[in-house]
Amino acid sequence: MIIEVISATRRTEPDFWRNAALGVSLNRLAEDDKRLVARVAYENRAPLPDLFNMCIRDATAGDVLVFIHDDVWIDDYYFGDRILDALQTFDVVGVAGNRRRLAGQSAWAFVDDAFRLDERANLSGAIAHGDHPFGEVSMFGATPAECELLDGVLLAARREVLAGHGVLFDPRFDFHFYDLDFCRTARAGGLRLGTWPICLTHQSGGAFNTPPWHEKLRLYREKWGT
């Protein structure tokens, strides 16, 4: 069983493996877990869906695909086992998400454009934030849990499930809203989404409320009607 860890970075290849949170994490883990194989787009300027869809369509890719940001520390040294365990229950797995989807949502955790956090009963999962591993943990709600929307910091699925159901990323959403759009596409295809307890630290808190973000929000709502 090959778990292909897929990411895009603006760093050079040597810089990624020496300094990027994901590169350092994979160096630490892959030595002992030979199931983990990296596919990284270095010095990348292309939309994330271009790389992600190429892997979904590639019959020689890993059995399991893990789409993850390059600024993520993998704190969990049972990472491979967590991913495989999660995919016995859900078709698409993340670390944080929302059990419901509402009209007017501007992100998986928010209920409106004012960035009001949804009620804890509707949220699931946890993720840490910080410049270094084992950052301060944000606990959203009980996990595992079936969800409608997942945070795109990590999305994992079996390649044959995505390919077999024709579930791809929309290239219109180059960075913002690619995750929400993908989740809705997966749900429309009949796939089950859910969170799983996997320990990560994300160096970024997100890029909400910027002009590019607002433009993708407009496209997202135009596509889905809400």
- Side-by-side strand order of the widest sheet: 2-1-3-11-5-12-9
Radius of gyration: 16 Å
Give the N-to-C terminal Cα separation.
39 Å
Number of strands: 13
| CATH architecture level-2 label | Alpha-Beta Complex
Query: Level of helix content?
Result: 25-40%
**What name goes with the CATH superfamily?**
Spore Coat Polysaccharide Biosynthesis Protein SpsA, Chain A
Category from helices, strands and their pairing: alpha/beta
Oligomer: single chain
Throw out a few tags for this protein.
alpha/beta, globular, 6-stranded mixed beta sheet, 226 residues
Walk me through what this model shows.
This protein has helices at 13-19, 21-30, 48-57, 79-86, 159-164, 178-188, 211-224, and strands at residues 3-8, 36-41, 64-68, 72-74, 92-94, 96-98, 123-129, 136-141, 145-147, 149-150, 154-158, 193-195, 200-202. It has 226 residues and is of the alpha/beta class. The protein has one domain: Spore Coat Polysaccharide Biosynthesis Protein SpsA, Chain A, CATH 3.90.550.10. The strands form two sheets. A seven-stranded mixed β-sheet has the order 2-1-3-11-5-12-9, sandwiched between helices. Strands 4, 6, 7, 8, 10 and 13 form a six-stranded mixed β-sheet that branches. Helix 1 (13-19) packs across helix 2 (21-30).
